[in-house]
Please model this.
Amino acid sequence: MKVAKRLVSFSLIMWKGIVLSVVLGWATVVSWVALMSTSAYLLSYAALHPSVAELQVAIVGVRFFGISRGVFRYLERLVSHNVSLNLLAKMREWVYVALEPLAPAGLQDRQESDLLSRMINDVETLQEFFVRVIAPPLVAILSTTSVVWFFGRWSWQFGLTILGLQIVVGIVIPLVSRILGKEPGQRLVQLRSKINAAAVEGVQGNAEIVMFGEKEGFLQKFVSVEKDYDHTQRKMNVIQAILDGVSVFSTQLSALLLLFAAIPLVNVGNLDGRLLAVVVLGALVSFESVAPLPKTFQYLEESIEAGKRLFELTDQIPIVPEEGALLERGEKIDIEIKHLSFAYSQISDAVLNNFDLDLPFGQKAAIVGPSGAGKSTLFSILLRYWDYMQGEVMLNGQELRTLSPEAVRSVFGVISQSTYLFNTSILDNIRLGNPKASLEEVKEAARFAEIDEFIQSLPQGYDTYVGEQGGFLSGGQRQRVAIARAILKDAPVIIADEPTANLDTITARKVMEKLLGLSSGKSLLLITHQTHGLAQMDEIVYLDGGRVVERGTYEALVELKGHFYHMRQLEKDLLPT
Ligand code: ADP
Model:
């Protein structure tokens, strides 16, 4: 119930639209009942051959209600869909705003496809919440009250019969439907998410599935979930069909019961004979307001399940809080790290142990070491993707933990190993670094990254689309676009995680020399596996197992003949100088 309450209070942000659409829904039903009643009256009266003048009022009534029903229905659909779509847009925004601070630390344990399914399917399921769950019961309560009051004035038996059968159709059948539909309803939502997950995995891992001959296995898995889905859907449909039948039967039964109640009244002269058909037809169509209620309960079940899944995600507390102080002086950043220790979770081993680094503004430091040493982790901490537990990280004397992640990220130009490129033009992708940059500035950044010449050679130049995740570009080209993007940002500190890993040796060296040549007005923190060019670094830190095992200038480390020296020797043996 808590979930339903939260969904209702979320919908109430559009309460004016909701009230209007409910009133319009009620007016539609009332017009329909009035149309059938006046038509029945007109026909019954006309059978007695009165003068046309006596029929005038009824004729006008039929015309009026015939038109008003259509107009009210149209307006009701217009308003209710407007409310629905607005709520959908607000919900999408709300989910995104709630998810953003969770990434990446809070979302890494979740499957990408499951996240997608929650963001798309569950939100779409909730789109129905207003139109199918909130509005129909309110319209039904208003309409039933009006109809029972109207016919009840003629005879209490009419009122009671209509009320009783409308309760059966509007409450008893929905309750039975809820009880029977609960389990398959929940299962359908879960299975839909499973199918999505399997489909996304199938598309993304298509190459691997084909390459490793897993096609059959994958298909079988997919088909078995589909079968389960079909089976559950069929079960749901059978329940629905039976209940629909009972609902139609009860509606028709009302006509019969009302006839039984009305005929004796006509016989004894307590009811005008011309009203006999009015009672039967008017009451019959008044069931229109309760007819959608069984579906309401079914949608309620699905909505609660979808709401639960969404709230579970959005209620997650971000590992790194969004709020924090602003950086007081953001133009020149001095970084000072002291005794920093970090583990990804309380039960896992420390990935960084007692790490120190001093990087005054304008200096360059390189972090080298074997894979898994904790180098990228250090970057994640600096960018406030994760929070550290022990030690100090100071930016201009302000503790990193107390700063807002947004403020922190604004001072770093990041070149990561796997940069995401959006499915738009190269120009827009580079401009992400600085949306206000001119074309000339973008080109300058691209020249820096050694990619300008390639872009110019493309038929559409900077307007070339890069495809999904930059799929139209090679790994090296993507990396250079990422470098151009980071350079364009013009942040005081560049942090680069193996920026040249995917480049050929000659380009890699050119790019590295340029990065190292960023002498004035920027600091550089570089993770690299290559020793080439590191002679220009103010400090090189050799990290192994999260601990600093060597540190110093290039000459000092070469002289030491330790880990760094061996790394350099290995590289010399492998690569041309
Ligand atoms: P490097 O960049 O030096 O190759 P990383 O900082 O990526 O090393 O990883 C250091 C250690 O932390 C590795 O043992 C890795 O398995 C672990 N690790 C990295 N990222 C995560 C993560 N998001 N969650 C849990 N463990 C992680």
Notes: DSSP finds 18 helices and ten strands in the chain. The beta strands are 335-343, 350-359, 364-368, 390-395, 398-399, 412-415, 493-497, 523-527, 539-544, 547-552. The radius of gyration is 35 Å.
